[in-house]
Amino acid sequence: MRHKILITEFMDTPAVETLRAKFEVDYQPEYVHQRAMLLEAVRGVPALIVRNLTQVNREVLDAAPALKVVGRLGVGLDNIDTALCRERGVTVYPASGANALSVAEYVIGTAMSMLRGAYQASAPTAAGKWQKVKLSTGFEINGKTLGLIGYGEIGRLTARLGRGLGMRVIAHDPALPDDAPVWRETGVSPASLEGLLREAHVVSLHVPLIEATRNLIDAARLSAMRRGACLINTSRGGIVDEEALARSLIDGHLGGAAIDVFATEPLPGGTPLARAVTAGVPNLILTPHIAGLTTEANTRVSGMIAERVGAFLEKL
Which alpha helices (H) appear in the chain, and where do they start and end? Predict the structure, then answer.
């Protein structure tokens, strides 16, 4: 019997073909935006593969009584009702670690860009506006303090890259006691949240979106950051108060922000951050939830999930 797999979002072609060699694959990446068709297609399917947009909630699970395994092409699980999956005996496989390097490089790359503050000058330079004095006041990343909120796998890889560039790295993670071996092993110092915000030149978020982290970075905590610091969010929208962030950038308290995730995705026009871009706020980088998406990461993520879902189905 060839088990059936439904894939509702983009997956790397070689991984899809690997699955097709052994299973019946229904590859329908447009179903993420066609809920009724998704609910119909998932009936009788033992395996479902999604990214971050497909909501695997009670509605989907009720429509899929034969479902046994969900593969997540990424690491965040906030779009999957994991508690209900456990209750119904559905195994969930995230692609843990497969896109960590892409996210870490995004953090360090955008940090360097914001600290230097010189890479949005192509148009005036081409027009003969020689802003040499204005663009000569950026900063080197060497010697700056990188503050990581959350110190899991991605945070630790980001720390390694930052330390390789001469950064001092501190991190806040309530799940890790101050005497945990990982601090000594990685050369990173534990810090309170308040201390981290006060000291760091660059603050990067690496926590899931749960009730304890919703609006974790609000107006008060943005004000507590050192003047001129930069904020990077590659974790989840909803952790940063977007309106408060826009105000902090417009007021000039923060030196920059790189935001890859938003409370509502795609980002609607007219939101505070969209208005900040229109207003010409410097050093504001907005990207469409792609920090973990590179050619290499897509290959690793898709290959990992294909292997795990395939191995699971072969045991049925």
Answer: 13-20, 35-41, 58-63, 82-87, 100-116, 122-126, 153-164, 181-186, 193-199, 219-224, 242-251, 272-278, 295-314
Contacts of 146 (CB under 8 A, 6+ apart): 111, 158, 159, 162, 167, 168, 169, 170, 200, 201, 202, 204
236 classed as catalytic: yes
Domains of the chain: 4-98+296-314 (3.40.50.720), 100-286 (3.40.50.720)
Does 265 participate in catalysis according to the annotation? yes
List 3, 156, 236, 300, catalytic entry: 236
pTM: 0.90
Catalytic residue flag (residue 59):
no
pLDDT in tens, 210-239: 999 999 999 999 999 999 999 999 999 999
Q: Of 289, 296, 300, 307, which one is the catalytic site residue?
A: 289
The catalytic residue among 40, 265, 296, 314 is 265
Q: Which amino acid, one-letter code, is at 201?
A: H
267: pLDDT strictly greater than 80: yes
What's phi and psi for 204, nearest 5 deg? -125, 135
Identify which of 285, 302, 313 has the alpha carbon closest to the alpha carbon of residue 107: 285
